[in-house]
Amino acid sequence: MVWATEWWKTTKQASSVWRLTRLYTALLLLVVSVLLVVLYQLSIGQMSRQQSLQMDGFIMQQTQLSEQLSSSEFIKQFKNQSENSRQYILSYQTNSDLIGRLNAIPKNITTCPTLTRFPIWLDKYNELRLVSGCLQTLKEGAFVVAIDDEYLYTLKAQFISASIIALLLALLLGVITGVVFSVRVLKRINHINQAVSRVQSGQLSARIEVSKYDDEYDYMALHINTMLTQLEHSFETIAGITDAIAHDLRTPLGHLRQQIESEITEKSQQNLPTEQLQNMLEKLDEILFTFSAMLELTRLQQQKEQKIQHFKQLDLQKIIVDAVDLIEPLAEQKNQVLSIESLQSVLVKGDATLLFRVLYNLLENASKYAGEGAQIKVKMISSGFCISDNGPGISDSEKEKVFQRLYRIEKSRQIAGFGLGLTLVKAVVQLHDGQIQLLDNQPGLIVKVEF
Amino acid sequence: MRILVIEDNQTTSQYLEKALQEQGYEVDLADNGQDGLFLALEGDYQLIVLDRMLPKLDGLSVLSTLRNAGKQMPVLILSALDSVSERVKGLREGGDDYLTKPFALSELLIRIEILIQRTGGANDNTKNILQVADLKMDLLSHKVFRGLTEITLQPKEFKLLRYLMEHSGQVLSRSLLFEAVWDYQFDPQTNVIDVHMARLRKKVEFDGLSPLLETVRGMGYRMVENN
Question: Fewer CB within 10 Å, N side or C side of chain A?
Fold first, then answer.
């Protein structure tokens, strides 16, 4: 049963396979139904049509006879018919008496050619049987003609139950074929989906398994694999170029830094002003910092597997307390209240320094952008934490953009920053297979991080 | 005091040589791993500055060979590879400190001084009381006194003050202070350490008492010399 519900869930998700199964089953049912109808018409239908045709003929014959013969002649003829007919059960009601097999004209009997079913005792079978008959009114009375068609009804009933069984079997066949088909198709599609989602999460080396069937799924898998190989190659090339640029630029910039530094030492020994050189040094450090941060981001996004190897079991609580300790005086300078709520142990497998930087960046952002006197709260939840403030918040249209490299919100441009902090936060959270969400605190921002 | 610098980049090694000589050290240079290892094994050096990536023999191999040969002088690793795992690798092989390129020359000098002082035994770890001028710190009871007045410090402030007192007279850079007190390896890049120092200063230099903590422009902080 568990298996069945599981199948149902996945089939419902994979709507294309489900639609196909439905269509297939409906077509199967339609074909079986048409076949059954045709079969019915050719056998039982034909028989009952013939029977009613004969009966109509007989009724017509008797009506004509009653018009042509005298009353006594007709009664004689009718008696003869009634006694000798194997097929029909007959009775003639005149004004005075009732001739024939019936003891009484059944109530509610319809006039011909509409037939009514009524019970009658038959000596031949020594039992009460249901017969079909009708009442035909003549000049001087009326006669009942009935036929023992119980065998036809039994046949009909049998045919109907056989048809129901056939339809159920068809339905079952449809569902079973659908299940088998969808399980097989889904399994293969799932292989593809799993590989693609691994690639999405940054594992560019993931590939789709190719089966031995050599069918269209295998062709698709091969195509996607080839595409991924090319993509991976391009990424490596880009990473190589970035690293080359980084190395080539960082070295001369580092030398420039050393030059300025020794210049400052020399000047200060001679008691000359070093103000301008100090400013140059600060600007240079900003460039170097931006450069290092971008390189680091590239590495974080690319070398996921390598980083995961160094992950350890950590308690988020300690990291949160450390980060709050570090930021607290900054908040105090701006008269902000920084508090921790529901402190609890939350274990995460990860890199302590990287996670600390996530908290540090988020808390620093909160302090930097929430404004004078803001309330900043860190709340621990069972699988992570929320950081909320009552500052200006971030508009919905910018919530995704703030995670992009070097993106800065227009109105906050006058506040110092590089637009790399949140990008790094997101990269680190993704490295830890976590999720980050920006929500409205009305007013303010809530950053929710879950692992 | 002799220092060996193993660095293949000419410009960097010349700057290092000049800066270290200005500080009064004698400096030997090697521009590849093989020569560096030979010099390190033969000569008597107080400290080695070792580049991570070198021609002929890479930095980590030099380091492990050195340690296997029983040489215990402090080694400061320089590297363009800035990641925690790289740092861990370097320290695990027997490195004593790790500095990422490009680095500030002042930062390097500060760290070299700390490393030499550590091995020189000037820092007596068995002491339970630290004292600088009239500032006293009891490491057992975690109490701090300025003269007769007790100063209440938060745990991180205590750690910060302790580190400054243990290295009194030395210039300590912001990143060094951050690493020592918070124990996470990255450069916070903002004035956050300055804010912590300002707070500590307010607690230690109250009521117009003589200043104990100096700001050294462009380098960091220094606690006055212990006499």
Answer: N
